[in-house]
Amino acid sequence: MVSQTTGADMFDGNFARWCTDHGISRATAYRHKKRIEEDGRWTARSRRPTSCPHATAWEVEAEIVRLRLNLPHHERGADTIAYHLNAVAEKQHWSEQGWTIPSRATINKILSRYHLVVPEPKKRPKSSYRRFCYRKPRDCYQIDATEVRLATGAKATVFEVLDDCTRTLVATRVADAETAAGAIAAIIAAFTDFGVPALVLADNGSAFTSRRTKGGTSGFTRVVKRAGARLIHSTPYHPQTCGKVERHHRTFKQWLATHPTQPTTLIELQQLCDTYQRFYNTDRPHSAVKMPPLQAWQNAPLLGGPQALPIQHDATVHALIVSSAGTVCIDSHTRLSVGRRRAGQTITLLHDDDHVTAYTADGNVIGHLHLDHTKRYQGQLQPA
After folding, report:
1. How many CB atoms lie within 10 A of CB 369?
2. Which candidate, 207, 181, 176, 192, places its Cα nearest to that of 270?
3. How far apart are CA 153 and CA 192, in angstroms?
4. How far is CA 247 from CA 145, 167, 239, 272, in A?
5. Residue 188: which residues within 8 A CB-CB, separation 6 or more?
């Protein structure tokens, strides 16, 4: 049609009839006629606006690219870049230029435009996850151990204690193996430096409980209970319960792998762990709290502790006495059975939306159950 014409007889000699035949208004046809007369032929033009007032300034884009290229490989995501942009914006007075810190999505789009990220359309978006955490610092500490190798090839174990709410690393202790002594040293260090929490969450490893080995009360359990905290253990073969500290192991190992000097002894490894704890708590922003963990701890209006069990909107912890019939009531509408043999005992119940997990006074898992809110009586707990 018009795209094929030049400045010759572009409308077949009859302008009005041509517009009627092609169903085009005269105003539109005249606009294209003028373009042909100016350019000598009709060519497609970009519909992109000549300006976009809300577009990210190229100076801001340059800073995003610079941070992406200069930050450590495992510390250069969109959230971390946004955190570092705050310091740049303050130093360069971005507010006077009318520039703002782009959102996480905008930063990712800019990185994609410069081919600095690999698109993963099938990857589950972070917005689809339901994050669970306690409301106050010191409501709950998570403890776990991870194995690392020294420069000599020998194995070592690092116990890490993480605050559930702020992700503050409250203790990190090196041991030659995953032993109760190492776990006790780590939890005592956490209690000494940051205070005693309401809950301590651990897995079912032999360093934290003896119920699956020799039975009785373990030394770690006695230390936690003596301090006034309540010990609970994760469901066996379900590491997601301690997911925060489990995920933190990877962050620590990535940092350790990129450190210029690798430890050859346990003493050198402990020195590096102390250095990492300071860096992680004060210099590195955490995506969950949008700031360094220790800053989130210090900004909290209240701290938890043994004086009160945590209470929150998404999950609650209950200390309940089992009735003579072997049942407990979560509220006036929900009742479930833990067994007559536990009648008179005090149990701890973690209630998270439609899921409950019951624990003994020693922190051992009794069982769990998915609640059916259409029924009052929920039936028997499923054994752990």
Report:
1. 18
2. 176
3. 33
4. 12, 11, 10, 19
5. 223
Cα–Cα distance for residue pair 101/286, rounded to 1 Å: 17
Residue 86's identity, in one-letter code, is N
Cα dist. 83→54, 77, 225, 292 in Å? Answer: 21, 10, 39, 10
CATH topology of domain 140-299: Nucleotidyltransferase; domain 5 (3.30.420)
38-47, 127-136, 273-282, 325-334: the lowest-pLDDT one = 127-136
Domain residue extents for the chain: 2-39, 58-125, 140-299, 315-383
- Lowest-confidence pick of 77-86, 167-176, 345-354: 345-354
Q: What is the pLDDT of residues 145-171, one digit of tens each?
A: 999 999 999 999 999 999 999 999 999
> Which pair of structure tokens corresponds to residue 7?
């400045």
pTM above threshold 0.85: no
Distances (CA, A) of 63 to 85, 112, 275, 284: 8, 15, 28, 18
Beta strands in the chain (DSSP E): 140-149, 155-163, 169-175, 199-202, 230-233, 315-321, 327-331, 334-337, 346-352, 355-359, 365-370, 377-380, 382-383
pLDDT at 313 over 60: no
Residues in contact with 146: Cβ distance below 8 Å, sequence separation at least 6, in sequence order: 157, 158, 160, 249, 252, 253
Of 221, 198, 225, 200, whose CA–CA distance to 211 is shortest?
221
Least confident window among 55-64, 68-77, 164-173: 68-77
At 256, the pLDDT band (50, 70, 90 cuts) reads very high
